[in-house]
Input
Amino acid sequence: MIDQTVFALAGLGFFLAGLQMLSEVSRTLVGRRLRRLLAVLGRGRVSSALAGIFLGATTQSSSAAAYVCIGLLNARAVGMAGALSISAWAGVGTAVLVFVASINLRYAALCALAAVGVLYLASLHRADAGQRLCRLLLAFGVTLLGLAMLKEAGNGLAASAWMKQLFLFSADSPLVEFFIGLLITLPLQSSSTVTILAITFSESDLLSLQDAVLMVGGAHIGSGLSVVWTSSHLTGESRQLALWQAAVKFLGALLLMPAGLMLILQPAIAGTLSAAFSTPMLLAMTYLALNVAGALLAVLWRAPLQRLLSAMAPIDAAPAVFEPRYLFAEASSDPETAFLLARQEQARLAALLPDGLSPLRQEVNDASLPLTNDARQTLTLGLLARISGFISEAVSRHPHSSDIRGLLLLKGANDHCRSLADTIHQYVNEIGAHQREHSGEHDLSHAMTEALHLLLGLLAEQFDAKDTDADFLEALTHDRSDMMLQIRNSILQQPGGGNASREALVLATGLFERAVWIIRQLSNDAREIAACLERERA
Output
């Protein structure tokens, strides 16, 4: 008995590890092309449905597909309508592995692993394409081998007295199987995985067809709840898309679960279906039908569902501008998506930097500035830390990937942004002290502030990939240390005025010069980041 239990747990370990490997390898193989394809296909109704099915078949997880859609939405690669449609149909694509589970798994697993051995013997694994193929076949073979071991272990466990008693008890309470499927799916975040386990148990006679159908239904709803649970930190459109995924699952279960109950109440119907189809095929068809039904209902009722989701996760008209809008932890698992989102967030941060000078600019109404200089600095540094942490997480997950070059460029630019934010903060403090003593005078401080504001505005446009003349910004930020030295000497030689005021102005000129130098470095960073983006698009 202990041997059978260990064998079953080993099979479960092979299956779950292989499934994770298969998902990661599939995303690596088609990641960049997949996102481009989804962005193009997401513009039409039929094409977005096909894109969703393809995404589900690639990721083999509707939860993972939902987060891919959130990433595409945040990066503005697809619109909200396209993201909703892709996410709704992704569950249909996940049925591929479920149908595969209904065949001779051991033979298929051995064929996949044998192919890996042949590739290694022929030294074809040394090339990049051969290495990727080996990883894909290995992941596929390990997944199927784990399933085969589970089935064999299930046959042995079915003979044990305590296992029979356990499943006899669950048979007396049909909803037990429903909640087992739901609860198992919450941590696994994959209804297809639980469905495959239900197929395995039913083939081993541990579950009747009716109980297995209920388990599949519970897993279907559990996958929707898992997305709601893991997306609780999201807001606005991202949260709406996660809730939409849950709504799709609930609608499919609501429409088709009565059919599952009918199987329980009418054994004759179950017998007829069992005579026409094998139990694994019936469960795979049930899983597919749940996903198709949910997608169809969600697409038909999209307008009322969107109104409901907008009420549940409203988009704040005036969000906290220093809270990340494009970053979420799940996106760090893919280097290219992480690069696109971090770039968007960094461009948004660059657009906030000119507002740091607002307390010094005469045409700005002080009543419209709720943040003090210190408060703004704290919030800016907090946003910079979030961006930096997101980039570091993405790099640490894929240290040897060729896609992290763009992330490293963004990290360097983020360090320069932090230095610039510190400099602006100090500059505002020093110039503010000078202006309080010389209220109403249009002196050098005003000229420097307006010049710095212009440079920051041009930098923000460059980071936002707008049609900005980068050469013009480079010319404006050219080294003028000799001129600044003359200005500082003239300030010190001016008669009158307090020493503290003159010292503050002299210090401000040094900070101004430093800010100009950092802006020049950031302009170069923006050029390299744009070039990296163009290379990825090519």
Summary: The chain has two domains: 2-312, 329-537. Residues 365-369 have pLDDT under 50 and may be disordered.
